[in-house]
Design a protein that fits this description.
This protein is α/β, with parallel strands linked by helices and about 550 residues long. The protein is built from 15 helices and ten strands. Strands 1-8-9-7-6-3-4-5 form an eight-stranded mixed beta sheet, with helices on both faces. It has a two-stranded antiparallel sheet with strand order 2-10. The N and C termini lie far apart (about 90 Å). GO terms for molecular function: methyltransferase cap1 activity; nucleic acid binding. InterPro entries: G_patch_dom, mRNA_Cap_2O-Ribose_MeTrfase, RNA_MeTrfase_FtsJ_dom, RrmJ-type_MeTrfase, SAM-dependent_MTases_sf. It catalyses: a 5'-end (N(7)-methyl 5'-triphosphoguanosine)-ribonucleoside in mRNA + S-adenosyl-L-methionine = a 5'-end (N(7)-methyl 5'-triphosphoguanosine)-(2'-O-methyl-ribonucleoside) in mRNA + S-adenosyl-L-homocysteine + H(+).
Length: about 550
């Protein structure tokens, strides 16, 4: 019997070819190709072609092989961007430190001098350059950051995002089951700070919030609300939040709080109802509202994540954000209770204005830290100022900030002048510990940013490069922060009987319409633990339900 490997298939007479037969066929094919090539060469020789020369009467045709396309993205044909030419790149993976666990460097607070005064505030020209601002960093670091940024001025946004996503080791963390990446930033910061926001401790390291008390927090300049969604998920019904942000496209999206209920979160938009944090009347209104609804003491911690588009002006983002920096810190000092915490997003900190603001915040808290979490993309200038344990009396610092904001308000946006310093530069220079801390921070973060920008450049030039650590970093970080690995899903709306069964309560089918007499009978809300309300499945009546927190 023949081996199965050479038994002809049913209906055919094909068998496996022998090696010698394969070699013979290959030789025949080669001879045929050479013959065709010889015929073509003889025809070209009759038309004047000489071997090694170019085609055409004057031999003007190209002689080198056609180069592979170097076209990147959707650029126009032939467009070349200096510094981003397509080529093979050998990236030095050791040039960046990639670790899931982060270490924060804290700077102890300092006593408020008795001579602190709003008279320290200085007005000047509304600057639009930052090239010479290297008092709090080395000139080389500032130059490297600015030059690395400028390479991308002509790069298409799609190309930039694609390369940025490919090269960032922490990009795959994404948003997990929250509405946006901001929620993961707060989870990252909270975990890196030993959960001091959602599980506050006093200066002795002991829990400062009893189990039976609410955790009050504020979320300012933070629409659509990723920070708050994280806190409400972490604390469930044991937290009460106050939100303050601009109305409109960047408003809080409470309907997207899939990870936790937004029932204990209350947005507020100030006296004018627009959520503009620059307006003194709005600030005062929000302060009064929070104090009236947070035991008269203020919130346990405040979060601020403000920012706006600076497209085309990325290099002066810090200057454009001066007033936003100021107002976020001012609101925090107004509503955070003594012993409370504060975290605010900042960008570059090169100017005397920013240095003065850090100087002031050091006088208002027991410790401060400038920190760039892993979830903050390494190629941008974003960083966070984390402040621990607000001091009892911060009135002098707050009054100076209030006056500075009023000066901004008087000057407007088209006067060509602005508040340029909050604290005299000689006073800042006298705090050598702060100057050294700020300079070291700026140098380290500036170097890290320049390396990351060059990495994006390399990934733009060489599309074969990829970041092999993304999956590992995602798993390590989520485990470290206590975030479960699950996808985002729309909450399921359960029938009343299922909800009651889950609570181990009896559900009675009998019900009645909420007519005026019935409502009058049940007006004393505090006599009831809860109301179960719904519209009938077959009812054709239009029913509107309004839920308002009663905490």
């Amino acid at each position: 019997m023949l081996p199965s490997s050479v038994i002809p298939r049913e209906g055919t007479m094909e068998t496996r070819k022998r090696p010698q037969e394969d070699q013979d066929n290959a030789s025949d094919n080669k001879r045929a190709m050479l013959a065709k090539s010889s015929v073509a060469m003889r025809m070209m020789a009759k038309m004047g072609y000489k071997e090694g020369g170019g085609l055409g009467r004057e031999e003007q045709g190209i002689t080198a092989p056609v180069a592979p396309s170097t076209q990147l993205g959707r650029r126009g044909l032939g467009l070349k961007v200096d510094g981003l030419e397509s080529k093979s790149v050998e990236w030095d993976w050791s040039s960046e430190v990639v670790e899931a666990k982060e270490t924060l460097k804290w700077l102890p607070g300092s006593e408020v001098p008795t001579d602190i005064s709003p008279n320290w505030i200085q007005l000047g020209e509304d600057k639009r350059t930052i090239d010479d601002e290297h008092k709090y960093c080395t000139p080389e670091v500032l130059k490297n950051v600015l030059s690395a940024k400028s390479v991308f001025d002509q790069l298409d946004d799609v190309e930039l995002r694609k390369s940025r996503g490919k090269c960032n080791p922490f990009e795959s963390i994404g948003k997990v089951f929250f509405q946006n990446r901001a929620a993961l930033k707060m989870a990252n910061i909270d975990a890196a700070c030993d959960m001091m926001f959602t599980n506050p401790k006093n200066k002795e390291g002991k829990k400062s919030l009893p189990e039976d008390q609410l955790l009050y927090f504020a979320d300012i300049c933070a629409g659509p609300g990723g920070f708050s969604e994280y806190v409400l998920w972490r604390k469930s019904w044991q937290a009460k939040g106050f939100g303050f942000t601009l109305r409109g496209g960047n408003d809080f999206k409470l309907e997207d709080f899939y990870a936790a209920s937004a029932e204990t979160f209350e947005p507020c938009y100030g006296k004018d109802g627009d959520g503009n944090i620059y307006k003194p009347a709005n600030i005062r209104h929000f302060e009064e509202h929070v104090l009236a609804n947070a035991d008269g003491k203020g919130v346990h911690f405040t979060m601020a994540d403000g920012g706006f588009s600076v497209e085309g002006q990325e290099n002066i983002q810090e200057i454009l954000s001066h007033r936003l920096y100021l107002c976020q810190c001012l609101v925090a000092l107004s509503i955070t209770r003594p012993g409370g915490q504060f975290v605010v997003k900042l960008f570059d900190l090169f100017t005397p204005f920013s240095a003065g603001l850090i100087w002031l915040m050091r006088r208002a808290f027991r410790e401060i830290c400038i920190f760039k979490p892993n979830t903050s993309r390494p190629a941008n200038s974003e960083r966070y100022l984390v402040c621990k344990h607000r001091l009892d009396d911060v009135s002098a610092v707050r009054n100076l900030m209030w006056t500075a904001n009023e000066e901004f308000e008087k000057l407007g946006t088209n006067s060509g002048r602005a508040v340029v310093t909050l604290v005299p530069e000689d006073v800042i220079a006298g705090d050598e510990e702060l100057v050294e801390y700020l300079t070291t921070s700026n140098n380290e973060l500036g170097h890290r940013q320049a390396v990351s920008l060059n990495k994006i450049k390399a990934f733009c030039q060489d599309s074969t490069l990829f970041e092999p650590r993304q999956a590992e970093m995602r798993k390590s970080c989520l485990d470290l922060w206590g975030i479960p690995e699950k996808s985002r899903t729309v909450p399921r709306v359960e029938r009343p009987e299922a909800v009651f069964a889950g609570l181990k309560l009896e559900y009675r089918q009998s019900s009645y319409d909420l007519t005026p007499p019935i409502l009058q009978e049940h007006m004393k809300m505090l006599e009831w633990r809860c109301y179960a309300m719904n519209s009938g499945r077959t009812s054709k009546k239009c029913t509107l339900f309004l839920s308002k927190s009663t905490w």
